Amino acid sequence: WNALNKKEKETVTINPKQLGYSLGGDPLKNLRAGIGVGAGNIELTFFNAPGKSSRSQGQPSPEAIGKIERQELKELARVNEVGVTIHATPNMGGGGGSFSGFTGQGFSEDARQKAIDEMKRTAEFTADVTEGGPMVLHIDGFERPIFAAGVKEGAKEDTFKNYELEKEKAPLHFVDKKSGKVIGLSREEEIVSAERDANGKIIIEDGKVKLKTETFQDAVEHFKALDQKEKKEYSNEIDYFYKGVKKGQQEIQEGEKFRYIDRANDAEKMEERYSGLIEAYESTDESKQGIMAEALKDQERSQSITSPEEMKQLLEDPTKYLKEKQDMYANERTIWQNAAAGEERKIHDATKELENYQDITTYGVAKEADTIAQSAMQAYEIEKKRKLKKSLWVAPENWAVERYGSHPKEYRNIIEKSRENMTQRLIDQKKMNPAQAKKVAADHIRGTFDIGHLNMWKKHFGGDDKEFAKWMKKEIRPLVKDKIIGHVHIADNFGYHDEHLELGEGNAPIKEFLKVLKEEKFEGKQIAEPGGQREGQLHRAWTSALQIGGSPIYRIDSSTRSWTDIGGSYFGRTQSPSFFVGDYAPTKDWTSWSEVPLE
Length: 599
Fold this sequence. Notes:
The protein folds into 3 domains: 19-157 and 363-560, TIM Barrel, CATH 3.20.20.150; 166-255, no CATH class; 264-337. It starts with 18 loop residues before the first strand and ends in a 32-residue tail after the last helix. The radius of gyration is 37 Å and the shape is elongated. Helix 1 runs parallel beside helix 2 and helix 7 (237-282) packs antiparallel against helix 10. By secondary structure, the protein is an alpha/beta fold. The strands form 4 sheets. An 8-stranded parallel sheet has the order 12-4-3-2-1-15-14-13. It has a 3-stranded antiparallel sheet with strand order 6-5-11. The chain has a two-stranded antiparallel ribbon with strand order 7-10. It contains 18 helices and 15 strands.
């Protein structure tokens, strides 16, 4: 908003007790800095790679902070009446860690375990420094097309797209449940299968099997037409298409197998024929073998195309000729039998593949939810052991738009699946009753929602800023109302990358977002995140949050001033300002207490 706008500026007030400020790097140094700018809540963020620490480079891990320093952090926060929350490293991939296990090449249990271990040492640090609260983690998800984001979970199709022909060109991904290997299948692939008549028999025309083809879009429509019983055989239309392609390939392999078996059987019959001829020839009286050779010659001509050389050999040495023929057909039989066995192995492997391969969304969500649930269980155990005053909970955060979990509906799905997983673990491991287990899981897995990260969807959105804000409110309101969101990050950008500008300097729908939070009586912390400021200006992320949230400046006298009364009070005046702030102020070298120049 500026003075040239026709519409009066709308203010959405933020409760200063809910507002916080985040800093990454050295925790003690950052806590002091946060207290210095007047923040009532400070989020300490780690940037180490899992299992590693680079304190000398300003990137310590939770484990690099010893007992004395942890005590100092706790006492400093207590004395200054400052709330502290913790952000686990967003750099999981830098050390080979991943909550879903997705590494870019496939899914790895080792990558998931690294994430679980990192969350455990973060939980132990959090328990030492705070009395409980959120531990933020980034939902890393897995690759999926932009246009398909949230559609499976109920989002409207064609709201977003990455490039013009994405819907036709984006590959379908599947995972081998045993190895974690990911394979791609083109949407331009076709299901090729044998066409059958009303009795289920394959139709053969002109000596060839009549084939039919089915595109991906055909498969989608056919899947929709299936009854509920038939649909249960497939997880979704992508699974239906994949299995259709593989079954079509299997039919072709089955046909090849039987063709090879027929060839092998024919060769075996010929082998047996020549074996019988050898036996008959050798048991014939020598005086009559010449007559039999002539008869064999006539038979051979009728059985196959025989060269003059072969006929000569037959007459000169019938036994040798017959033996060579027998060996030839025995060799052919072996070749065709091996070929049939090869096709059988392909069919077996394809059948196993159909059993083992699963679409990436079903597989990846289950893995991510399982890792988050295990991390939450660890936090719950530590909370009970340390007898913390508040719940120690994990707070999965929406992150990269290219990955699953960043769309609001995907975000909800991951958190709900994580809660379901933890609920079952509490029932099985703690013998907790289902109602109590569900309540504990909902308390220990609450999402962090970042409006700056959501704004990065704007580059894929077809509408203008107002339409995007409208879409945002429609998506976010139920997440707040249903208590999916328990913690909030506020940052600004222009919709391309996560630049962490001062609030109001980009085009993220921050005020609309804050308005939804207020209307739904959101009680969690709202953390302003710096990052895109000039050197020495990180605090402006915090003060801009106070300003955009309509928080006044409190002073001893009775007048209430706003932030622009100070920082921008010289705008619209004829006289020069009596003071300078920010980068305009000259650097201060040594001066006396009165600041009078030495000269």
